[in-house]
Amino acid sequence: MKIFSKKFNNLFPKGAGFTLTELLIAVIIGMLIIMVVSSTFLLNQKVFRKGNIKAELSQNARIVLDLMSREIRQANDIVTVLPPDDTDPNLVSHELEFEDGHTTSQIQYLKYLLENGQLKRRIIVYYFDTDPLTYVRWNDVDAFGPPTQNILEEKIIGENFSSLDFFGSSNINIVLNLNKNNEQIEMKAVINPRNN
Prior knowledge:
By secondary structure, the chain is of the alpha+beta class. The chain contains two helices and eight strands, in the order H-H-E-E-E-E-E-E-E-E.
């Protein structure tokens, strides 16, 4: 034990130690290192979250554009009157209705529209009050006038949408804008309806 004690005293002779100034400098340097490490960590977290949000918005837009593209390509008739281009923002349509080209058992229409940041897809049918079980075209007329509209189904197919624009004469242009936590993306598509 005496040997250990002697060696210990040789390492730290009496009166040797840190001065108050040396301790303060060591504490300040330690705090600076901790601040640099923590700010780097927080910055990395912020960049990671930003990247995740952008990826989520891009994925949502791609899924929605894929669904709309497939259905619009098969459209039998485009009901919504679209401007030829987007030069006049007041004429650009923010919804699109068209006859479903996939369903042959009945006449039905699909409509895409934006409500409160949610992109919705509706299945719509038209019928005359005299025969509500027989679906007709949207522009048919009987002795009492135009048909009644009924929404068979409404689904939310996307969220975080800030705008939805449709325009074009032969090809339909779609412009989607998505926004979440101050991150924004815009995606565009041009679709050629085959049956229209």
